[in-house]
Design a protein that fits this description.
Low-confidence stretches: 11-33
Helix content: 40-55%
Structural class: alpha+beta
CATH topology: OB fold (Dihydrolipoamide Acetyltransferase, E2P)
Number of helices: 7
Radius of gyration: 27 Å
Oligomer: single chain
Distance between the termini: 98 Å
Amino acid sequence: MEKGIRYIASLLLVALVAYNSVYFKKLDQITTGKNLFNAAEYASRFWNEKLPRHTTKAIGIDVLLDLLQTDKDMAFKDYSHALGISNIKYFLIKGSGIVQAVGENQVSLETKSEGRSTQLFLATEYVFGNAVRDASGEIDINAFTNSMDFNNVSAEINKIIRERVIPPFSSKVKIGDRVDFIGAIELNQEHLNTQSIEVIPIELKIKD
């Protein structure tokens, strides 16, 4: 009898320990933990608080193109940013141009400076890549614990552009409009091509 009581007591003790060792938590309680990186929140702070300091210092596209012809190395050294050692570099640029064509995926602009005209393309549909994230040089990859978080920041910045910048512009722009723009561009320092530059827009304004 005493042996049976001890056996039952042992079972109850094991059950009690097991009960206290296992607990359940809602998934949203886990995924919203304090240490979880929020790419959307980070991108929003970057867009509203950090990026404007750099866009005010964006180089004029015509100035940049002239400098690329006269001293390419200086242009890249002084005005571009890139992650590590890479031929792909990013610039923050600004300018003004006349709309030549309005397509489904982009708007074609012509800028003129000292008798020279340049055709640029404003991306209005497929906004992807790291141009805006990296062009300012503000975001340091070493501040991130993993590459996924770093890449998600780009995705969220591009989402801001698609949702906030492009729609009010695309709904009104037409051929012949003068557009003031600030944006980011990608250039290859080793194989430079300035004939079909695509601008990822940060600010777009149709002049009256």
